[in-house]
Amino acid sequence: MSCQPMKKDESVTLAQHRRTFFTQAAAGVSLMALAPGVRLVELAMANSEDSLPSSDKRWGLLVDTAKCESGCDECVSACNSEHGLSGHGRPETDAQWIRKVDLKDEQTGHELSIPILCQHCEDPPCVDVCPTGASFRRADGIVLVDKHICIGCRYCMMACPFQARSFIHEDLTSQKTHSPRGKGTVESCTLCVHRIDEDQEPACVEACREAGHDALVFGDLEDAAGPLASLSRKTATRELRPDLKLNTGVRYTSF
Amino acid sequence: MPSSTPFWWVVAIATVFVVAGLASAHHMESAGHWVTGMNNRVVWGVPHVFAVFLIVSASGALNAASIASVFGREAYKPLSRLSALMAITLLVGGLTVLVLDLGRPDRLIVAMTHYNFRSIFAWNIFLYTGFIVLVVVYLWMMFEPRMNRFVGRVGTTAFAWRLILTTGTGSIFAFLAAREAFDSAVLAPMFIAMSLSFGTALTLILSALIFSIRGDGLPTALMLNLRRLLGYFVIAVAFFVMVDHLTRLYGAEHHSVERFLLLDGGVYSMLFWIGQILLGTILPAVMLMQRRCSTLAPTLVAASLVLVGAFCQLYVLIIGGQVFPIDMVPGFLETSGFFDGVIAEYHPSLAEFGLGMGGVGLALLTYLIGTRVLAFLPTATFDSGSSS
Predict the structure, then answer these.
(1) Are the beta carbons of A132 and B337 separated by less than 8 Å?
(2) B36-64 burial by CB neighbour count: b if 16+ within 10 A, else e?
(3) For residue range A19-50, what is the model confidence (pLDDT) as tens digits?
(4) Over the stretch B200-215, which tens digit does the pLDDT of each residue have?
(5) Alpha-carbon distance A177 to A199, whole Å?
(6) Mutate to test the interface with B, among A92, A100, A143, A246 (most CBs of B within 10 A)
(7) Per the CB < 8 Å rule, is B111 touching A116?
(8) What is the pTM of this model?
(9) Which residues from B are below 8 Å from A169, CB to CB?
(10) Spatial distance between the Cα atoms of B229 and B71, rounded to a whole number of angstroms
(11) Could you say which residues of chain B have pLDDT below 70?
(12) ipTM score here?
């Protein structure tokens, strides 16, 4: 077998091919190496400090019981629709994040109707008792359940003074992407955290206003100039189970 | 050589319970908990009654070993290993029921890797697993002649540990400030007394079972020594139950819940007075303290009655405490579509009993197998000597 020397043109072309190959390979490797980094930057940007919940705020609700009509359940329907809560006709086991409760004063007979939901306590008993830390309180005061680490022990339901939590007793359908849920875990009102993070108010508040009642006022409890603080200055507010000193984020007025 | 037929019969019965328990758990997990009697108002049901019974009894089952190695009563040594085996198997049975009742039992690893140390539940995970480890070490000290000299120290640690363990179990309920029927510091010492009582009663019954199966006679004298002790434990439980109710009866704010539990509660009041007090306290206490009943048969009947009372007590405590409504707005009558302001309905399902009995079956099965695998039973006859 003989070995003939390459011509000059052939040698140049081969060198060019080799150079192109190495250039493209280097670009490809660089892209593969840098892409995750770029993605990390993207994620870091997404979770920049501006977008994280801040303890400068404390989200809450004020319920004006004088405006809350008995028999009206617009807030309940809006919550069910927003979070895809559909019952099976079994009120004992169906999920409910907000419910209407009729009250009658034992002494005077005065009657009123109030919505009861997670009260987003400053010292939530559900968070204290949760063995895995699935129940937690965000810096801005919203009490949530991390569905990934909830084991379904229901101790939080035993501890909640408002019976505001539901255990998912059966298979789910029609779940909403913004409201993750799962059979065998516990859930409760999220104060529509997905809407709050997009500077919108909770679905129940919107529905109540659209129904013409305006009994629910949403806002920042820490904001002295905000609607909650200004309303609270004008009238006495009360929290449910004041004996437990939970400093709830949901307050009631006019009773 | 005694016949092993009775042994295998009991093993078969225990296995049936275990299979029933697994089938029940599978049914509950695949269909969802709506097939049980539990709901969003009564979140813990019959499985929890069984689980708490087994866990609390596990702690008390170590009594015989503690009496021997902590309090130096050599006569109890022959029962030491057996009592340690009972403690482990009962605890495993109880924990299995608890785990299989979880909404997500597949996430057990999460419970072992994520801890919230403000939660008494999380603390109990350490107390239960630590207790099993400690009793295994205790058994090693008893089995290995070279380690016998450490039995006292390990036994004392196990004794202290189980007092803390039952305090922790009682605190699961005692820390529930929102619910009137719980929220009481008395529950912690009451659970200690319950563990001593239920555990001793089970020790008597399970010892009688295993020695009967073995066919070479019961350690009658030793078991009768435990008779009077069980009587005192029954009285101790009754004392704490009385203190618990009296402290609540004193303040007007708890009159409603007391009226419900003691008078108007239907099945709950009936279980309290007939099951817990008459059958589970007065009758066994009289039988155990009377000299005329100082033979083995009435002792075992009394121990069985203590267990009947135990189930009634835990049913009234755990479920009765939940069905009574939480008064969210004091001074107002509450009504809603979620049964606010009314006594909640709870009808336990067969699956719940199946799961609970599965835990009992598992405890019994592992106990029986344990006695065949290792020398948990004394080799010497009781009247002639003892083994460590």
Answers:
(1) no
(2) bbbbbbbbbbbbbbbbbbbbbbbbbbbbb
(3) 676 667 767 666 666 655 555 555 555 555 66
(4) 999 999 999 998 888 7
(5) 18
(6) A92
(7) no
(8) 0.89
(9) 32-34, 39-40
(10) 14
(11) 1-3, 379-388
(12) 0.92
